[in-house]
Design a protein that fits this description.
about 210 residues; Arc Repressor Mutant, subunit A; 9 helices; disordered N terminus; mainly alpha
């Protein structure tokens, strides 16, 4: 009887709680998984690699589409700082759209995406600096230079007044010497002799002629 009663008690005892399921834990604390996902997501920065995935029909696999959706956690700042090629986050966002996934299977669309990416790399720095760097204030227009002052005319020196020219009058001739030597009076005896002598000379000249 005791054995039967003990068996009934054990049969009616409540079930013990089941042990919790063992959670998978990476042996290296997830380091290997982190590096593999980081490498894969950075490969998405290459349009040629996306074209390869589209042509090999990876985008038709629902598990792969779910994996792309799961990788969106890399857009959080604590994970984004490890990414060296930020274009991968842009293409990861585009890959959430089925139309983009289908379009990337065409080689022309792959070339277009690659060309636009190149133009972005080429002009991104200059375009970004235009919005970041403060624009210099416009320089004031230089004031027009005043016209050069004309040099003063040469000062005219006053001409000294010319005194009226005085015409030099010829000096009065000195008193003419008397024809008579020593100023003898005409009635003197010496004068008479002279008159005579002149008359004798005239006569001689006539005779000679």
């Amino acid at each position: 009887m005791a054995s039967s009663s003990s068996s009934k008690e054990t049969h009616n005892a409540p079930d013990t709680p089941a042990s919790p399921k063992s959670i998978y834990k990476d042996p290296d604390d997830g380091r290997q998984r982190f590096l593999l996902e980081l490498e894969f997501i950075q490969c998405l920065a290459n349009p040629t690699y996306i074209h390869y995935l589209a042509q090999n029909r990876y985008f038709e696999d629902e598990a792969f589409i779910a994996y792309l959706k799961y990788l969106q956690y890399w857009q959080r700042p604590e994970y984004m700082k490890f990414i060296m090629y930020p274009h991968c986050l842009f293409f990861l966002e585009l890959l959430q759209n089925a139309n983009f996934r289908d379009a990337m299977a065409h080689p022309g669309n792959k070339e277009l995406a690659h060309r636009q990416q190149f133009f972005f790399w080429k002009n991104y720095r200059n375009n970004r600096l235009k919005h970041i760097l403060p624009r210099p204030l416009p320089e004031p227009a230089p004031a027009p230079a005043p016209p050069a002052a004309a040099p003063p005319p040469p000062s005219m020196q006053p001409v000294p007044p010319v005194p009226p020219t005085t015409i030099a009058m010829p000096a009065a001739p000195a008193s003419a010497l008397s024809p008579m030597p020593y100023g003898m009076p005409p009635g003197s005896a010496l004068a008479k002799n002279d008159m005579r002598n002149t008359g004798i000379d005239r006569r001689k000249r006539k005779k000679e002629v």
